[in-house]
Amino acid sequence: MDKSVDVLIVGGGPGGLFMAARLAARGVQTLVCEEHARVGDPVHCTGILSSDSIPAFDLPTSATLNQLSAVRFLSPGGIPVDYTTPSPLATVIDRPAFDRALADRAIGAGAQLRVGARVSAIEVDAAGVRAVAAGVTIRARLVVLACGASYAFQRRFGFGLPTTYLQTAQRELPVAHPGDVELHFGQDVAPGGFAWAVPVLRPEGAFVRIGVMASRDILGCYTRMMGRVGDRWGMANRDLPPRIKILPLGAVGRTYGDRMVAIGDAAGLVKPTTGGGIHYSIVTGALAADVAVDALAADRLDAQTLSAYERAWRTELADEFAAQSELRTIVTKLSDRAIDSFFELAHTDGIMPIVRATARFNEHRPLIRALFKHPPARRILFRAMMA
């Protein structure tokens, strides 16, 4: 049996669900197709949100587990740098509960949600969109790719692929001695990325989300990170395998086409420095919804009209992404010795006041610019650039 809607959203993650609620609240017939049997499963990320993002987008607070206001950075040689903020910088969320709360909002606004409905085919022509999901043909005026780090449709419709990829491995495990957030760096620890341990405080006890993002040897990196923190945190169930996934770190070549746009991870729009994606999936979902409402009302859904979406996200995010990408390109060239030197600067040469003055969870550009203006830090970074 055929089904007809205004907008089909492929993927029931935060960006797609936020966009669905925004569209439905404005009278747009919206259908979200989620391939898994339950929204929020399996868990896809570390589940950390800027504390600013929640009020800015009126996001659900019911999924909040604990706040984060302290982090310890550890260099390859074990040099620690501690950073604390007077108020919480970030929030740890129960990601499945968060996604399901967004789903409830979307449904409450009038959107439809189908689970266990993987979209297996999409055809686009002048008459509209024709998609197949779980044996049902869906006809829509517009399709939104919100399917995470899955790029078959982007490749097929000429959107291209993200410019950079890493792999991630992560697991949530019970612990006896939870600590503050730890971020570990080094070519042996996490080449091209970093490793983390994030405390998670649930009603049933304390846990840690331990993981790594790296360009190679992802399981080896994960095992070595377990060795670094497992005993100190009193970690249980260490033999359970991590969840491994691909992490995009650069936008696809184009995020719009005739009757189609891509948002969030599906467009490669994540933080190039950390790979964080929830905030930017919601930002791009909101921008895409605003463009879609106008395009639907005018019945102009061609690529030229929908290019307004890409202009919107580039206006808001392109400078930030460019600065983060530039820093990432340089930092990945740093030797372990150079990273240790950078950490030593934090103890001796005024780096931490710069961090306290300029660091923002979602906006790294002010800190990056300040570091390049700091002579000792600039020397280390320029040596990496020349190398």
Distance between the termini: 61 Å
| Whole-number count of domains | 3
Main sheet record? 8 strands, mixed
What fraction, in percent, of the residue positions are helical? 25-40%
List segments where confidence is low: pLDDT < 50 over at least 5 consecutive residues. Answer: none
Q: If you consult CATH, what is the topology of the largest domain? A: FAD/NAD(P)-binding domain
How is this structure best summarized?
The chain is an alpha/beta fold and 387 residues long. 37% of the residues lie in helices and 27% in strands. Strands 1, 2, 8, 9, 10, 11, 17 and 18 form an 8-stranded mixed sheet that branches. The chain has a 7-stranded mixed sheet with strand order 6-5-13-14-15-12-16.
